[in-house]
Write a structure and sequence with these properties.
Elements lengths: L1 E5 L6 H13 L4 E4 L10 H10 L3 E2 L3 H8 L2 H6 L1 H9 L2 H8 L4 E4 L3 E4 L12 E2 L6 E2 L2 H8 L6 E3 L7 E4 L5 E4 L7 E4 L5 E4 L5 E9 L2 E9 L3 H10 L3 H9 L4
Parallel strand pairs: 1-2, 2-3, 5-8, 8-10
Antiparallel strand pairs: 1-13, 4-5, 6-7, 9-10, 11-12, 13-14
Length: 247
């Protein structure tokens, strides 16, 4: 079985289109989306349409939740949130509302956006220094708590990683489809810069007891996405899309 693992599309329908084309070339059986699909100044509604068309198994990310929980005051001061909320119709908002926080597929595959305790936290990294630092084995097992699935699939940090644990479990973060550099304020102020402009996802192939994990980097029409961000008043996003860096 071949599984495509995606996360953090962030409204970048152009990157998602390219990733889906790549999955077709690789004869993927199942498409998994770990959340944070819509919050970005590119094309939220078109992203939704493409996700629904391709029958993803999709989770709710913390940014998806922020869209649902947005107050009038937040919409007034947050231009991206306001744009996304206005671009998505009620049908989409109801659909997002029904997305699961986590999902177990059989016994072997556990999907989560952040952590079981908090969807805004990172499963694999500590951000307290302002940059991401990989947790040690003991800390990751502590975060997993009683999750015993062989494969644990997480997103949120937008940093592609594959970590083998002493428990025999494998934790996979596919990185981000939509954007490769940004600032975040939760759980503290920190930055992420992947220094690439390509969309990132993972192909997990499982055959009995054997498995193969392939990190994929997919080129797409970055300029198209950047121009759309500029059209929506976010030249900072255009810079990040074009460089994979913040400055």
């Amino acid at each position: 079985m071949k599984i495509a693992i995606l996360s953090d599309i962030k409204s970048n329908v152009y990157a998602l289109e390219a990733v889906l084309e790549d999955t077709k070339k690789n004869n993927i059986d199942v498409l998994l989306n770990l959340g944070d699909s819509f919050l970005g100044p590119i094309a939220p509604k078109e992203t939704y349409d493409l996700i629904r068309k391709n029958n993803f198994i999709t989770l709710l990310g913390d940014e998806d939740r922020q869209i649902l929980e947005a107050s009038l005051a937040q919409l007034e001061i947050n231009d991206i949130l306001r744009y996304v909320y206005n671009d998505l119709n009620d049908e989409v908002l109801y659909w997002i509302q029904e997305l699961p926080f986590e999902k177990l597929i059989g016994e072997d595959f556990y999907m989560i956006h952040g952590t079981y305790q908090d969807d805004s936290l990172y499963m694999l990294e500590d951000s307290s220094s302002g940059k991401l630092k990989l947790h040690d084995d003991k800390k990751i097992l502590e975060i997993l708590d009683d999750i015993k699935s062989k494969f644990v699939l997480c997103g949120n940090s937008c940093t592609p990683r594959c970590v083998n644990l002493s428990s025999g479990q494998v934790v996979i973060n596919p990185g981000a489809v939509g954007v490769q550099a940004f600032n975040k304020n939760l759980p503290n102020k920190h930055t992420i810069e992947n220094n690439t402009i390509d969309a990132s996802y993972v192909i997990l192939t499982v055959e009995g007891e054997k498995y193969d994990i392939e990190l994929k980097k997919v080129a797409y029409d970055v300029e198209k996405a950047a121009l759309k961000a500029i059209e929506n008043g976010r030249e900072d996003w255009a810079k990040r899309l074009r460089t994979g860096r913040l400055k």
